[in-house]
Amino acid sequence: MTFSDETLVAYLEGTLDEAQSRAIEAAVETDTALEHRLMVLDPFAPLVHDVFEKLPAEAPSVEMPDPVMPAARGSGLRLVAVAASAAIAAIAVTFWATRPADLGWAQQAAIYQSLYVPETIASLDSSTKSLDKQFEMAEAELGRSLNRETLESLPGLELKRAQVLSFKGKPLIQVVFADEQGQPFAFCVIRQGPDAPPAEIKQAVLSGLATATWAQDGYGYMLLGNSPQTDLQNELDVLTRTFAG
Amino acid sequence: MKTKHTQVAIYSMNAEMTSEQAVRDAVQTHSKRVWRFALALSGASDVADDLLQATCLRALERHHQVTSHNRLDSWLMTICRSIWLNEVRSRSVRRAQALSVTPEADLVASGPDTETNIFATEVFTQVMQLPEAQRETVMLVFVEGYSYREAAALLEVPIGTIMSRLSNARQKLKAVLQPDAAHTARRSGK
Known about the structure:
The complex is a heterodimer.
Chain A: H1 5-13, H2 18-28, H3 32-41, H4 44-52, E1 65-66, H5 76-85, E2 94-95, H6 105-114, H7 118-122, H8 128-142, H9 148-152, E3 158-167, E4 170-178, E5 184-191, E6 199-206, E7 209-216, E8 219-224, H10 233-242
Antiparallel strand pairs in A: 1-2, 3-4, 4-5, 5-8, 6-7, 7-8
Chain B: H1 4-13, H2 17-42, H3 45-61, H4 72-101, H5 114-128, H6 132-143, H7 148-155, H8 159-177, H9 179-188
Protein backbone atom coordinates (compact mmCIF):
# COMPACT_ATOMS: atom_id res chain seq x y z
CA MET A 1 0.00 0.00 0.00
CA THR A 2 1.24 3.49 -0.75
CA PHE A 3 0.51 6.53 1.35
CA SER A 4 0.70 10.14 0.23
CA ASP A 5 2.87 12.63 2.08
CA GLU A 6 -0.32 14.35 3.20
CA THR A 7 -1.59 11.14 4.74
CA LEU A 8 1.71 10.57 6.50
CA VAL A 9 1.80 14.10 7.88
CA ALA A 10 -1.76 13.69 9.10
CA TYR A 11 -0.67 10.52 10.84
CA LEU A 12 2.30 12.28 12.42
CA GLU A 13 0.13 15.15 13.58
CA GLY A 14 -2.38 12.75 15.05
CA THR A 15 -5.27 13.77 12.83
CA LEU A 16 -5.54 10.62 10.74
CA ASP A 17 -8.34 8.18 11.51
CA GLU A 18 -7.64 5.10 13.55
CA ALA A 19 -7.90 2.56 10.71
CA GLN A 20 -5.46 4.38 8.45
CA SER A 21 -3.09 4.98 11.34
CA ARG A 22 -3.00 1.26 12.10
CA ALA A 23 -2.45 0.55 8.40
CA ILE A 24 0.59 2.82 8.35
CA GLU A 25 2.01 1.29 11.51
CA ALA A 26 1.53 -2.20 10.12
CA ALA A 27 3.14 -1.27 6.81
CA VAL A 28 6.22 0.21 8.50
CA GLU A 29 7.08 -3.20 9.94
CA THR A 30 8.23 -4.37 6.52
CA ASP A 31 8.70 -1.14 4.61
CA THR A 32 11.90 0.72 5.45
CA ALA A 33 11.25 3.32 2.76
CA LEU A 34 7.97 4.23 4.45
CA GLU A 35 9.77 4.38 7.79
CA HIS A 36 12.30 6.74 6.28
CA ARG A 37 9.59 8.99 4.82
CA LEU A 38 7.83 9.19 8.17
CA MET A 39 11.05 10.19 9.86
CA VAL A 40 11.76 12.88 7.28
CA LEU A 41 8.22 14.27 7.38
CA ASP A 42 7.90 14.29 11.17
CA PRO A 43 7.32 17.95 12.14
CA PHE A 44 8.16 17.31 15.80
CA ALA A 45 11.55 15.70 15.33
CA PRO A 46 13.51 18.77 14.20
CA LEU A 47 12.08 20.96 16.95
CA VAL A 48 13.02 18.50 19.67
CA HIS A 49 16.32 17.77 17.97
CA ASP A 50 17.36 21.41 17.84
CA VAL A 51 16.78 21.91 21.54
CA PHE A 52 18.45 18.76 22.81
CA GLU A 53 21.29 18.70 20.33
CA LYS A 54 22.90 21.58 22.22
CA LEU A 55 23.16 19.43 25.33
CA PRO A 56 25.43 19.08 27.10
CA ALA A 57 26.96 22.48 26.41
CA GLU A 58 30.45 21.08 26.80
CA ALA A 59 31.65 17.58 26.09
CA PRO A 60 31.09 15.68 29.31
CA SER A 61 34.24 14.60 31.03
CA VAL A 62 34.71 10.88 31.23
CA GLU A 63 37.48 9.51 33.35
CA MET A 64 38.80 6.34 31.86
CA PRO A 65 41.48 4.09 33.24
CA ASP A 66 44.65 4.41 31.21
CA PRO A 67 45.62 1.33 29.22
CA VAL A 68 49.26 1.78 30.07
CA MET A 69 50.95 0.07 33.01
CA PRO A 70 51.76 2.54 35.77
CA ALA A 71 55.43 3.30 36.19
CA ALA A 72 57.20 0.57 38.05
CA ARG A 73 59.86 2.32 40.00
CA GLY A 74 63.20 0.69 39.33
CA SER A 75 61.85 -2.57 38.02
CA GLY A 76 59.76 -1.68 35.00
CA LEU A 77 60.87 -4.44 32.69
CA ARG A 78 60.51 -7.14 35.25
CA LEU A 79 57.00 -6.08 36.13
CA VAL A 80 56.01 -5.84 32.50
CA ALA A 81 57.30 -9.36 32.00
CA VAL A 82 55.32 -10.56 34.98
CA ALA A 83 52.23 -8.80 33.72
CA ALA A 84 52.52 -10.25 30.27
CA SER A 85 53.24 -13.76 31.38
CA ALA A 86 50.39 -13.73 33.81
CA ALA A 87 48.12 -12.16 31.22
CA ILE A 88 47.19 -9.47 33.66
CA ALA A 89 48.38 -6.49 31.68
CA ALA A 90 44.82 -5.29 31.39
CA ILE A 91 44.30 -5.03 35.11
CA ALA A 92 46.97 -2.43 35.68
CA VAL A 93 44.91 0.64 35.27
CA THR A 94 45.60 4.32 35.59
CA PHE A 95 42.94 6.89 36.20
CA TRP A 96 43.50 10.17 34.53
CA ALA A 97 41.48 13.10 35.56
CA THR A 98 40.23 15.60 33.05
CA ARG A 99 38.23 17.55 35.56
CA PRO A 100 40.61 19.67 37.57
CA ALA A 101 40.27 18.95 41.27
CA ASP A 102 36.72 17.90 40.67
CA LEU A 103 36.73 14.40 42.06
CA GLY A 104 39.12 13.25 44.72
CA TRP A 105 40.66 9.83 44.74
CA ALA A 106 38.05 8.52 47.16
CA GLN A 107 35.16 9.62 44.96
CA GLN A 108 36.84 8.06 41.93
CA ALA A 109 37.54 4.84 43.78
CA ALA A 110 33.89 4.73 44.88
CA ILE A 111 32.63 5.23 41.33
CA TYR A 112 34.89 2.43 40.15
CA GLN A 113 33.96 0.13 43.01
CA SER A 114 30.25 0.80 42.52
CA LEU A 115 30.48 -1.05 39.22
CA TYR A 116 31.48 -4.25 40.98
CA VAL A 117 28.88 -6.98 41.23
CA PRO A 118 29.26 -10.48 42.70
CA GLU A 119 30.04 -11.78 39.21
CA THR A 120 33.01 -9.43 38.96
CA ILE A 121 34.80 -11.05 41.86
CA ALA A 122 33.45 -14.58 41.40
CA SER A 123 35.59 -14.99 38.29
CA LEU A 124 38.83 -13.63 39.76
CA ASP A 125 41.82 -15.92 40.05
CA SER A 126 42.51 -15.87 43.78
CA SER A 127 45.08 -18.63 43.86
CA THR A 128 48.00 -18.16 46.21
CA LYS A 129 50.26 -17.84 43.19
CA SER A 130 48.20 -15.01 41.69
CA LEU A 131 47.85 -13.22 44.99
CA ASP A 132 51.61 -13.52 45.55
CA LYS A 133 52.27 -11.72 42.27
CA GLN A 134 49.59 -9.15 42.86
CA PHE A 135 50.83 -8.26 46.31
CA GLU A 136 54.41 -8.14 45.10
CA MET A 137 53.45 -5.63 42.42
CA ALA A 138 51.15 -3.67 44.68
CA GLU A 139 53.62 -3.34 47.53
CA ALA A 140 56.40 -2.39 45.10
CA GLU A 141 54.21 0.37 43.67
CA LEU A 142 53.06 1.55 47.03
CA GLY A 143 56.41 1.39 48.76
CA ARG A 144 54.99 -0.20 51.88
CA SER A 145 53.59 -3.46 53.13
CA LEU A 146 49.91 -4.21 52.70
CA ASN A 147 49.92 -6.51 55.74
CA ARG A 148 48.54 -9.36 53.72
CA GLU A 149 48.17 -11.67 56.72
CA THR A 150 45.81 -9.18 58.32
CA LEU A 151 43.84 -8.75 55.13
CA GLU A 152 43.54 -12.50 54.72
CA SER A 153 42.24 -12.95 58.22
CA LEU A 154 39.54 -10.29 58.25
CA PRO A 155 36.45 -12.03 59.66
CA GLY A 156 33.78 -12.83 57.10
CA LEU A 157 35.82 -11.62 54.15
CA GLU A 158 37.64 -13.64 51.54
CA LEU A 159 40.61 -11.97 49.87
CA LYS A 160 40.10 -11.98 46.09
CA ARG A 161 42.59 -9.64 44.46
CA ALA A 162 45.04 -6.78 44.86
CA GLN A 163 45.03 -4.49 41.85
CA VAL A 164 47.42 -1.69 40.94
CA LEU A 165 45.64 1.49 39.93
CA SER A 166 46.84 5.03 39.83
CA PHE A 167 45.21 8.34 40.56
CA LYS A 168 46.84 11.46 39.14
CA GLY A 169 50.18 9.71 39.07
CA LYS A 170 49.91 8.38 42.60
CA PRO A 171 49.85 4.63 43.08
CA LEU A 172 46.45 3.46 44.26
CA ILE A 173 45.99 -0.13 45.35
CA GLN A 174 42.56 -1.70 45.42
CA VAL A 175 42.24 -4.88 47.45
CA VAL A 176 38.97 -6.68 46.73
CA PHE A 177 37.19 -9.12 49.02
CA ALA A 178 34.03 -11.19 48.83
CA ASP A 179 31.81 -11.14 51.87
CA GLU A 180 29.88 -14.18 53.03
CA GLN A 181 27.14 -13.49 50.48
CA GLY A 182 29.70 -13.11 47.69
CA GLN A 183 29.20 -9.34 47.61
CA PRO A 184 32.22 -7.20 46.81
CA PHE A 185 34.07 -5.32 49.52
CA ALA A 186 37.17 -3.24 49.01
CA PHE A 187 40.08 -1.68 50.82
CA CYS A 188 42.11 0.94 48.98
CA VAL A 189 45.45 2.52 49.80
CA ILE A 190 46.95 5.49 47.98
CA ARG A 191 50.45 6.89 48.41
CA GLN A 192 49.88 10.62 48.82
CA GLY A 193 53.40 11.67 49.62
CA PRO A 194 55.11 12.73 52.84
CA ASP A 195 53.55 16.20 52.85
CA ALA A 196 49.96 14.98 52.76
CA PRO A 197 48.08 15.97 55.91
CA PRO A 198 46.67 13.23 58.13
CA ALA A 199 42.88 12.93 58.27
CA GLU A 200 40.54 11.53 60.87
CA ILE A 201 38.23 8.64 60.00
CA LYS A 202 35.33 9.92 57.97
CA GLN A 203 32.38 7.77 56.99
CA ALA A 204 30.25 8.69 53.98
CA VAL A 205 28.07 7.16 51.31
CA LEU A 206 29.77 7.64 47.95
CA SER A 207 28.31 6.38 44.66
CA GLY A 208 25.80 4.38 46.68
CA LEU A 209 28.43 2.63 48.82
CA ALA A 210 29.16 3.00 52.52
CA THR A 211 32.77 4.17 52.78
CA ALA A 212 35.28 5.15 55.41
CA THR A 213 38.41 7.15 54.67
CA TRP A 214 41.37 8.23 56.71
CA ALA A 215 44.92 9.37 56.06
CA GLN A 216 48.11 9.03 57.97
CA ASP A 217 51.87 9.25 57.36
CA GLY A 218 51.56 10.07 53.70
CA TYR A 219 49.06 7.36 52.83
CA GLY A 220 45.31 7.57 52.31
CA TYR A 221 43.06 4.64 53.18
CA MET A 222 39.54 3.77 52.19
CA LEU A 223 37.09 1.00 52.99
CA LEU A 224 34.15 0.42 50.69
CA GLY A 225 31.10 -1.72 51.36
CA ASN A 226 28.60 -2.86 48.78
CA SER A 227 25.55 -0.80 49.74
CA PRO A 228 24.80 2.42 51.60
CA GLN A 229 24.05 0.31 54.69
CA THR A 230 27.19 -1.85 54.90
CA ASP A 231 28.55 -1.84 58.44
CA LEU A 232 32.28 -1.19 58.18
CA GLN A 233 33.05 -0.97 61.87
CA ASN A 234 34.68 -4.37 62.43
CA GLU A 235 37.02 -4.01 59.48
CA LEU A 236 37.66 -0.40 60.36
CA ASP A 237 38.78 -1.38 63.87
CA VAL A 238 41.25 -3.91 62.54
CA LEU A 239 42.59 -1.87 59.67
CA THR A 240 43.03 1.43 61.49
CA ARG A 241 45.11 -0.51 64.05
CA THR A 242 47.10 -2.35 61.41
CA PHE A 243 47.75 0.64 59.21
CA ALA A 244 48.65 3.01 62.00
CA GLY A 245 51.88 4.29 60.50
CA MET B 1 58.85 6.86 34.02
CA LYS B 2 57.05 4.79 31.44
CA THR B 3 58.69 4.53 28.07
CA LYS B 4 57.05 4.34 24.70
CA HIS B 5 58.60 0.94 24.22
CA THR B 6 56.75 -0.50 27.15
CA GLN B 7 53.45 0.70 25.77
CA VAL B 8 54.15 -0.84 22.41
CA ALA B 9 55.17 -4.08 24.05
CA ILE B 10 51.95 -4.29 25.98
CA TYR B 11 49.81 -3.47 22.99
CA SER B 12 51.45 -6.06 20.79
CA MET B 13 51.28 -8.72 23.45
CA ASN B 14 47.63 -8.23 24.05
CA ALA B 15 45.39 -8.71 21.04
CA GLU B 16 42.40 -7.43 22.98
CA MET B 17 43.77 -3.92 22.84
CA THR B 18 42.22 -3.50 19.43
CA SER B 19 38.68 -3.79 20.68
CA GLU B 20 39.66 -1.85 23.78
CA GLN B 21 40.91 1.00 21.63
CA ALA B 22 37.70 0.89 19.60
CA VAL B 23 35.71 1.24 22.82
CA ARG B 24 37.88 4.11 23.99
CA ASP B 25 37.37 5.88 20.68
CA ALA B 26 33.63 5.27 20.80
CA VAL B 27 33.46 6.72 24.29
CA GLN B 28 35.16 9.89 23.12
CA THR B 29 33.01 10.16 20.01
CA HIS B 30 29.65 9.41 21.57
CA SER B 31 29.92 10.84 25.07
CA LYS B 32 27.42 13.62 24.36
CA ARG B 33 24.85 11.25 22.91
CA VAL B 34 25.17 8.84 25.81
CA TRP B 35 24.89 11.73 28.26
CA ARG B 36 21.71 12.97 26.57
CA PHE B 37 20.25 9.49 26.66
CA ALA B 38 21.21 9.21 30.31
CA LEU B 39 19.48 12.54 30.91
CA ALA B 40 16.35 11.27 29.16
CA LEU B 41 16.39 8.13 31.28
CA SER B 42 17.11 9.71 34.63
CA GLY B 43 15.70 13.20 34.22
CA ALA B 44 18.61 14.74 36.12
CA SER B 45 21.92 16.02 34.84
CA ASP B 46 23.96 14.89 37.82
CA VAL B 47 22.60 11.35 37.49
CA ALA B 48 23.37 11.59 33.77
CA ASP B 49 26.99 12.46 34.64
CA ASP B 50 27.29 9.37 36.83
CA LEU B 51 25.49 7.16 34.33
CA LEU B 52 27.80 8.24 31.54
CA GLN B 53 30.85 7.59 33.67
CA ALA B 54 29.58 4.17 34.73
CA THR B 55 28.63 3.33 31.15
CA CYS B 56 32.08 4.12 29.84
CA LEU B 57 33.84 2.10 32.51
CA ARG B 58 31.48 -0.83 32.03
CA ALA B 59 31.98 -0.67 28.25
CA LEU B 60 35.72 -0.75 28.76
CA GLU B 61 35.43 -3.74 31.05
CA ARG B 62 33.40 -5.49 28.39
CA HIS B 63 35.43 -4.49 25.35
CA HIS B 64 36.09 -8.16 24.62
CA GLN B 65 32.37 -8.50 23.77
CA VAL B 66 32.86 -6.16 20.85
CA THR B 67 32.93 -8.14 17.65
CA SER B 68 32.23 -5.35 15.21
CA HIS B 69 33.45 -1.81 15.57
CA ASN B 70 30.35 -0.53 13.82
CA ARG B 71 27.53 0.98 15.77
CA LEU B 72 29.29 1.04 19.08
CA ASP B 73 27.05 4.01 19.83
CA SER B 74 23.99 1.79 20.18
CA TRP B 75 26.04 -0.68 22.23
CA LEU B 76 26.94 2.16 24.61
CA MET B 77 23.29 3.21 24.76
CA THR B 78 22.29 -0.34 25.62
CA ILE B 79 24.85 -0.50 28.43
CA CYS B 80 23.73 2.89 29.73
CA ARG B 81 20.10 1.79 29.81
CA SER B 82 20.96 -1.49 31.46
CA ILE B 83 22.89 0.26 34.24
CA TRP B 84 20.02 2.68 34.67
CA LEU B 85 17.37 -0.04 34.88
CA ASN B 86 19.31 -2.48 37.02
CA GLU B 87 21.43 -0.35 39.27
CA VAL B 88 20.49 3.29 39.40
CA ARG B 89 16.80 3.74 38.77
CA SER B 90 15.51 2.46 42.11
CA ARG B 91 17.93 4.73 43.97
CA SER B 92 16.89 7.72 41.89
CA VAL B 93 13.14 7.27 41.90
CA ARG B 94 12.39 9.68 44.68
CA ARG B 95 14.72 12.28 43.23
CA ALA B 96 13.38 11.72 39.72
CA GLN B 97 9.86 12.33 40.95
CA ALA B 98 10.91 15.51 42.63
CA LEU B 99 12.81 16.62 39.56
CA SER B 100 10.00 15.89 37.17
CA VAL B 101 8.18 18.80 38.76
CA THR B 102 11.06 21.12 38.00
CA PRO B 103 13.13 19.84 35.09
CA GLU B 104 16.47 21.51 34.72
CA ALA B 105 15.29 23.76 31.95
CA ASP B 106 18.16 26.16 32.55
CA LEU B 107 20.28 23.57 30.73
CA VAL B 108 18.89 24.76 27.43
CA ALA B 109 18.13 28.39 28.18
CA SER B 110 21.63 29.66 27.62
CA GLY B 111 21.30 31.42 24.28
CA PRO B 112 21.52 35.18 23.89
CA ASP B 113 17.96 35.44 22.56
CA THR B 114 15.27 35.44 25.23
CA GLU B 115 12.45 34.26 22.98
CA THR B 116 14.49 31.35 21.73
CA ASN B 117 15.36 30.48 25.29
CA ILE B 118 11.73 30.50 26.32
CA PHE B 119 10.82 28.23 23.44
CA ALA B 120 13.73 25.89 24.13
CA THR B 121 12.76 25.78 27.79
CA GLU B 122 9.20 24.90 26.87
CA VAL B 123 10.30 22.09 24.55
CA PHE B 124 12.77 20.77 27.09
CA THR B 125 10.21 20.79 29.87
CA GLN B 126 7.56 19.07 27.78
CA VAL B 127 9.93 16.32 26.68
CA MET B 128 11.30 15.77 30.16
CA GLN B 129 7.78 15.49 31.56
CA LEU B 130 6.88 12.67 29.20
CA PRO B 131 6.71 9.22 30.77
CA GLU B 132 10.10 7.53 30.77
CA ALA B 133 9.30 5.08 27.95
CA GLN B 134 8.22 7.90 25.66
CA ARG B 135 11.11 10.09 26.73
CA GLU B 136 13.77 7.50 25.91
CA THR B 137 12.11 6.79 22.56
CA VAL B 138 11.83 10.46 21.65
CA MET B 139 15.47 10.96 22.52
CA LEU B 140 16.66 8.07 20.38
CA VAL B 141 14.52 8.83 17.35
CA PHE B 142 14.00 12.59 17.32
CA VAL B 143 17.30 13.69 18.77
CA GLU B 144 19.78 10.96 17.92
CA GLY B 145 18.21 10.00 14.60
CA TYR B 146 17.88 6.28 15.18
CA SER B 147 15.35 4.68 12.86
CA TYR B 148 12.23 3.16 14.37
CA ARG B 149 13.63 -0.33 13.96
CA GLU B 150 16.99 0.60 15.40
CA ALA B 151 15.27 2.11 18.43
CA ALA B 152 13.08 -0.99 18.69
CA ALA B 153 16.14 -3.22 18.74
CA LEU B 154 17.91 -1.03 21.27
CA LEU B 155 14.92 -0.82 23.60
CA GLU B 156 13.93 -4.44 22.96
CA VAL B 157 10.35 -3.69 22.00
CA PRO B 158 8.40 -4.25 18.76
CA ILE B 159 8.60 -1.51 16.16
CA GLY B 160 4.86 -0.92 16.64
CA THR B 161 5.55 -0.01 20.25
CA ILE B 162 8.09 2.57 19.13
CA MET B 163 5.53 4.09 16.78
CA SER B 164 2.78 4.21 19.36
CA ARG B 165 5.13 5.73 21.94
CA LEU B 166 6.07 8.41 19.44
CA SER B 167 2.41 9.03 18.59
CA ASN B 168 1.56 9.45 22.25
CA ALA B 169 4.54 11.74 22.74
CA ARG B 170 3.54 13.83 19.74
CA GLN B 171 0.07 14.30 21.18
CA LYS B 172 1.52 15.66 24.39
CA LEU B 173 4.07 17.81 22.64
CA LYS B 174 1.54 19.16 20.20
CA ALA B 175 0.48 22.13 22.25
CA VAL B 176 3.93 23.66 22.23
CA LEU B 177 5.62 22.04 19.31
CA GLN B 178 3.24 22.30 16.42
CA PRO B 179 4.73 24.75 13.98
CA ASP B 180 1.86 27.21 14.54
CA ALA B 181 1.90 26.83 18.25
CA ALA B 182 5.66 27.02 18.27
CA HIS B 183 5.48 30.23 16.31
CA THR B 184 2.90 31.60 18.72
CA ALA B 185 4.95 30.51 21.68
CA ARG B 186 7.97 32.25 20.27
CA ARG B 187 5.98 35.38 19.66
CA SER B 188 4.02 35.52 22.84
CA GLY B 189 6.84 34.27 24.97
CA LYS B 190 4.53 31.64 26.36
